[in-house]
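Q: Is it fine to ask for two folds in a single conversation?
A: Yes, each is treated on its own. Send the first.
Q: Here.
A: Result:
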Amino acid sequence: MRSNLLKSLSAVFACGLLVFAFQNCGKAGFDSAIDTTENLASVGSDTAAPFAFNATFDQITYNSCFGAGLSTNAAYFTVKAGSYDGGGVNLTSNFITYVNSKLKPQYPSTTVTVEQMKSYVGETVENNSATLQMALRTRGAPQQVRNPTGSNPALNVDYVNLMTDLTDDRIMEPVFRSLGGVVNYFPLAATAAQRVMEAKITYNNDEGVAYSLRNDLSNNGMLALTYTGPTGTSAFAARMPSSTTDTSIAYGRGYTMLFAADIAPLTQAIAQSTTVAPNSRNPNNILVGIQETDLANPAANSGATWSCAQGRRYAIVKAADSATYCPADSIDRMGDANYRRELEIVRRHLPASQWDVSIDRRCVVPKSGTCYNNAAGTAEEAVEYDQRNECYQGLQGLANPAIAKRCAQYISICLRN
């Protein structure tokens, strides 16, 4: 399958080593990236038209859970991102202005119609066959896709296409009808998955990969929302302006992520105090910050801000521990509008069919699978939910054999302001 996806590659080569490359659990770390720099100007008749689309996520969720078999369990992910409230796809003002100056109204209309715009966009070099794509890429070099093995990137593993071709009428229709307004639901799309702007990437086979990924994203990597190139380019090329050979830019958004060993509300509840601090040896497995960059103009301030609030750090609790640490909330809580709002945000990425959620305790319980199996995968181990206490990490140089309880894992939710 990978060889078929990569037939159109014109150049593939490895980038330099990362600052951090871990081998703690006998697995490869994020030690290389695959480059796909290409000539993206290959189709279309109008070479002067600007890029038509602007897209952004408005929610990014990080799940620190890891373990054998979780990569095939639909409930689990490493990073999930989507657009639900303010994010989505819209037409750029540059494209709207250009089209109105380029095209002539069709009689009897006195203005350029939406149907004219839709017919035109697919014939332009900058926009033909553009499809949104999410991947982990290199900061300052968005053509490079990062993964933990250094192998050629695979579809739906290392990069994920969202919805379908943006110049497909089923996607274009609501975007063009909005004339610059943001759209994040596409009712005409062929499948339920294509109707929403959402994707996930899963690298959670073991603790070493999870640790390596966090360090990579904090230093050299980024989550990227880009656009596929025209027909004839590689499947994971990030579309860039056809007039440039500068591979440090691309159309799309980059999201740099910061992780820390910070306090979660469950620890505050256990301690009955809001002024507690985490043990200094505990892992940096909570997402605490996101910075958004316009990849087409990375030197400029994008103007976007993100909030990774302490109140949106949800501890993952074993089913066996749920009665003590994550009991169900009272149904009466649904009468509180703030409670319903928070539950809606959490349920975007943790559906009720896969997770039990306590908003009051800020914890979740998976309905299948576990984050806390022993190394043999045969039984769950004890978990330290109180971050004031040191917990056990199974990584070379970090493991303390005197500590018996495993480190708690967390769901961290960040929202675009």
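Q: Second one now.
A: Result:
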Amino acid sequence: MKSVIGGIVGVITCLGLLAAGPVEIDRKFQPYKPEQRVAGDLRTVGSDTLSNLVLLWAQQFSSAHPGVKIQVEAKGSSTGPAALMEGQAQFAPMSRAMKNKERDEFIKKFGYEPVALRVAIDCLAIYVNKDCPLDEISMPQIREVFSVDGPDMTWGQLGVTDPRWRDRPISLYGRNAASGTYGFFKSVALGGSDYKPSVKEAPGSAGVIQGVASDPLGMGYSGIGFRTPDVKVLHVAPETGDEAVEPTQEAANYGEYPLARNLYIYVNYDRNSGLDPLRAEFVRLIYSRDGQESVIKDGFFPVSSRIAIEDMGKVGLEFPTSKEQATVPSNDG
């Protein structure tokens, strides 16, 4: 996926209204007010999961800074580190943390670590067709269903008694290996085990949802922000016998939902030179009330002001308060 903001506006699919339960933004976040006008080209390369959200930010940013042209390329988190390291992108959106090898290669080239900005919180959801009678699943069951170490499963083995599903095999959907979602799910849900060969891999998050929506026997994993009315989100129990937990903001913030994760934007930050004004303003937008409203609009959960303060500090920026935010000087002189 490649979209350009500035002259050509990319198509954005906003699914946040389908998120379960009320979602709130920390009251300390302030509306975005640029500290200075900026212009130039900005390019992001990385996560498909974050692509809609980055496009929303890009639209907001280009409205505030008409002289900025933003290109968003979303082919998977694994494409981000190399693009950042080679100077092909100013930001690398990723749905997982950088792997040790990726980080080590960056350090070897620059002599310092890349900075990970936590920009949103996601719950990786387990989806079934909207007509499926199953309502919940445990983490051990998820591993059995998706892992090559588990048997080929029928719906009856998950407790489904409806004869339309009971003896039918579970049809599996997931992401491809270029995706950070693929790696996160493999590590956390499968304990590092390989996927069953029968998993139908989609290059994008929406593709998983489309597959499950069109398959009455389908089950797949994808970010909560990609939910549609044609699929059902299962509640997930951390262990067998535990209460199953709905993927909500509260459950994610308190560590109750076992498949919650941070979403990141990586940046090449040299303490000696600091962030250039273009990148600095984009980061300020992300950690503004407007930026975090876009997080909700795209179906994810906003970060806390504590995280914003910590991560803005990592790149030499201060989290603004209402009194500290300056109005941009007029161009009239």
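Q: Anything structural to flag on that second result?
A: Two points. The radius of gyration is 21 Å. Confidence is low (pLDDT under 50) at residues 2-20, 324-333.
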